């Protein structure tokens, strides 16, 4: 019998990816989003207590995967109070309803954005090694509200015993980079493959992490924890490497993936001059049993063969934008995706 899973944010990038994938893994997803789409079952907001009461009365969920949020691209278009309403109050309402319904697991997708100022050492300083031991220093209302929501997750877990797992995902959106210099300095595919080295993850691997979290919570081996979810970096955490990433990132990469330059040269790509941080997802691999597929090394191999380096799921999800009316690189829905 399929296990019923509530997926919030089901019209967005990760939410729709979950809705596409979960049925083949033995789950029956119910999608909730403020925007109608082919992957959304119920149109409505997580901030509506009456709607959530109705939903939890109608359905008996095994798990919740909570992806709905106001994102970093909304910082310039939404007020701080709106961020608090959706990201903190909405998450709290979901947690309370889930605990009251004796849900087996609550998976909260947070973001590596929460690390904020810890992510950007000054030029001349070693690259930052970012794992779960790093204390977040959020620098905008998005980061602040995600950190607060993580704390509420822990509070509800400790008060009720409900299994709650926080996944701090790195960037997986297919839209162009929001930094003009990078958009203009690198081909879009080149830049995204570069990012797999230190700050990107394929949406198919994020779905895999969510499913692993549901499974570990269900068996009781992990009932609380925060996990960085990013493509495994080829770098190791040592002072020499972190200094070299600041001084000559290309040389640092040549030492661990010596064949990348030949492939890059054939397609006219280049690596970054400097890398300021590396996300370490080894805890998720070790404790959740997560097995990411879409690594930098795999991408280089696929590019070298002239094949698609992205997952089929990432291509299917497409670009979805973040606003109903386009205001920048994040906001235009194309490739079959609805705004989210």
Short descriptors:
alpha/beta, seven-stranded parallel beta sheet
Tell me about this structure.
41% of the residues lie in helices and 13% in strands. It is built from 13 helices and 9 strands. Helix 3 links the parallel strand 4 and strand 5 (105-111). Helix 3 packs parallel to helix 4 (141-160) and helix 10 crosses helix 12. The two termini are 31 Å apart.
Ranges where pLDDT stays below 50 over 5 or more residues in a row are 329-340
Shape: globular
Order of helix and strand elements from N to C terminus: EHEEHEHEEHEHHHEHHHEHHH
Taking the alpha carbons of the first and last residues, their distance comes to 31 Å
Quaternary state of this entry equals single chain
Sequence of strands across the biggest β-sheet: 3-2-1-4-5-7-8
Please summarize the sheet with the most strands.
7 strands, parallel
Mean pLDDT: 92
Structural class: alpha/beta
Radius of gyration: 20 Å
Number of helices: 13
Percentage of residues in DSSP E strands: 5-15%
Measured as a percent range, the helix fraction is 40-55%
DSSP strand count: 9
List the helices and strands and how they pair.
Blueprint: E1 3-8, H1 13-21, E2 27-33, E3 42-43, H2 49-58, E4 63-66, H3 80-100, E5 105-111, E6 128-130, H4 141-160, E7 163-169, H5 180-185, H6 188-195, H7 203-219, E8 224-229, H8 239-247, H9 249-256, H10 260-267, E9 277-279, H11 282-288, H12 296-304, H13 312-317
Parallel strand pairs: 1-2, 1-4, 2-3, 4-5, 5-7, 6-9, 7-8
Helix pairs in contact: 1-7, 2-3, 3-4, 8-9, 10-12
């Amino acid at each position: 019998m399929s296990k019923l899973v509530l997926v919030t944010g089901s019209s967005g990038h990760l939410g729709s990816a979950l809705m596409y994938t979960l049925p083949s893994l033995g789950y029956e997803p119910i999608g909730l989003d403020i925007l109608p789409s082919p992957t959304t079952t119920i149109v409505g907001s997580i901030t509506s207590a009456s709607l959530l009461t109705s939903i939890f009365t109608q359905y008996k969920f095994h798990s919740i995967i909570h992806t709905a949020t106001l994102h970093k691209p909304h910082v310039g278009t939404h007020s701080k109070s709106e961020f608090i309403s959706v990201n903190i109050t909405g998450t709290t309402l979901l947690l309370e309803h889930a605990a009251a319904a004796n849900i087996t697991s609550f998976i909260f997708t947070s973001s590596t954005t929460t690390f904020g100022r810890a992510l950007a050492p000054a030029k001349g300083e070693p690259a930052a090694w970012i794992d779960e031991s790093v204390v977040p220093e959020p620098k905008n209302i998005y980061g602040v509200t995600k950190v607060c929501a993580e704390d509420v997750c822990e509070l509800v877990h400790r008060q009720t015993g409900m299994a709650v797992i926080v996944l701090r995902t790195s960037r997986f959106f297919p839209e162009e980079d929001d930094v003009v210099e990078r958009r203009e300095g690198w081909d879009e595919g080149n830049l995204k493959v570069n990012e797999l080295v230190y700050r990107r993850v394929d949406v198919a691997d994020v779905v895999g992490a969510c499913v692993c979290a549901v499974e570990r919570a269900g068996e009781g081996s992990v009932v609380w924890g925060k996990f960085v979810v990013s493509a495994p970096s080829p770098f190791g955490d040592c002072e020499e490497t972190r200094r070299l990433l600041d001084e000559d990132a290309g040389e640092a990469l040549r030492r661990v993936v010596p064949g990348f330059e030949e492939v890059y040269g054939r397609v006219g790509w280049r690596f970054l001059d400097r890398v300021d941080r590396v996300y370490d997802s080894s805890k998720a691999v070790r404790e959740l049993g997560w097995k990411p597929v879409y690594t930098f090394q795999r991408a280089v191999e696929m590019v070298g063969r002239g094949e698609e380096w992205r997952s089929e799921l990432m291509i299917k999800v497409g670009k979805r934008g973040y606003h109903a009316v386009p205001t920048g690189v994040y906001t235009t829905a194309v490739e079959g995706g609805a705004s989210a």
